[in-house]
Design a protein that fits this description.
This protein is an alpha+beta fold. About 20% of the residues lie in helices and about 20% in strands. The strands form 4 sheets. Strands 1-3-2-6-4-5 form a 6-stranded mixed sheet, with helices on both faces. It has a 3-stranded antiparallel sheet with strand order 7-8-11. The radius of gyration is 20 Å and the shape is globular. It starts with a strand and ends in a 12-residue tail after the last helix.
């Protein structure tokens, strides 16, 4: 039996994942139980440092006795649950979701989904060239980050990071309806004119490259983005005494972007504008066009 180590005062919940007994602490999710069982569950709108919003539905699993598939990222584990993660019903649902997403937006930079699309045999191209797409120009309004709606899958991660889960700025939200829905500032004003404080936490959680460092965007445009050649060095932010951990992504001896580990007890993956973007003093000659 797989047991996710609880605190001594915690109540335990026992369930089965694909016939395998698993025990987790009460209040943990079905996704936590899947992880404890060693099951790799596809997720897109889920992040360990954000509140689940059930937007993407690629993490659905089958719960014995339930009429519908359930989102494993938010459904709390319950005593006696019998969960199937690889049934034909689950596989078909995940395949369809991945195909719908891929038919409407550019998923080329959503690298975490590529292996899952292969796993489930998802083929967005089968909807044909007439499938409606966003086809909007990239929004470049400053030197820090860009917005590319062609890549946005409306996972809500950026909205959550800008709102209650991290920054509490509430500069962005979803506007519009149906295919016209977009992540937008209030009244669609430019970022410099909005409430945005440029913490970049929206960039840090975006899974598809829809919100992206300007440095990364410029290198990709020049076909010089080489993540396989980059090194990541962890350090402490030098701007104040909070102690935020930084991950310096370095390519060709040049810092190209800065992230923070989501499991760090201080940052939980979130930074301020200085930690996220204030590293150019290290290399003042960097080209920031």
């Amino acid at each position: 039996m797989t047991v996710l180590e609880p605190r001594s005062t915690e109540t335990l919940v026992s369930l089965t994942i694909d016939g395998r007994p698993v025990t987790v602490a009460a209040g943990q999710t079905v996704l936590d139980a899947c992880s404890a069982a060693g099951v790799d569950t596809p997720t897109l709108c889920y992040a360990e440092n954000l509140t689940p919003v059930n937007a993407c539905r690629v993490c659905v699993v089958e719960h014995e006795g339930s009429r519908t598939l359930i989102p494993s990222c938010s459904r709390k584990a319950e005593e006696g649950m019998e969960i199937k993660t690889n049934s034909e019903r689950v596989r078909h649902s995940r395949k369809m979701v991945l195909e719908f997403l891929g038919s409407g937006v550019d998923m080329s930079q959503a690298t975490q989904l590529h292996s899952w699309m292969e796993e489930y045999g998802a083929d967005p191209s089968r909807y044909g060239p007439d499938a409606e797409r966003i086809n909007e120009p990239v929004k470049i309004q400053d030197d820090l980050y860009i917005r590319d709606y062609d890549k946005c899958v409306l996972c809500y991660k950026c909205v959550e990071a800008c709102g209650d889960d991290a920054q509490l700025t509430f500069a962005i939200a979803v506007s519009g309806r149906g295919f016209g829905a977009r992540i937008s500032t209030e009244y669609d004003v430019t970022l410099p004119d909005s409430a945005c404080v440029y913490c970049g936490n929206c960039v840090g959680v975006c899974p598809t490259g829809a919100i992206q460092f300007k440095t990364e965007f410029d290198l990709r445009q020049a076909e010089q983005w080489k993540p396989e050649e980059q090194t990541i060095t962890q350090t402490i932010c030098s701007y104040c005494g909070v102690g935020c951990n930084l991950e310096m992504h370095v390519q060709d001896n040049t810092i190209v972007k800065v992230t923070s580990p989501s499991d760090h007890s201080v940052t939980h993956g979130h930074l301020c504008i200085k930690g996220r973007f204030g590293w150019t003093y290290v290399q003042p000659t960097i080209n920031r066009k």
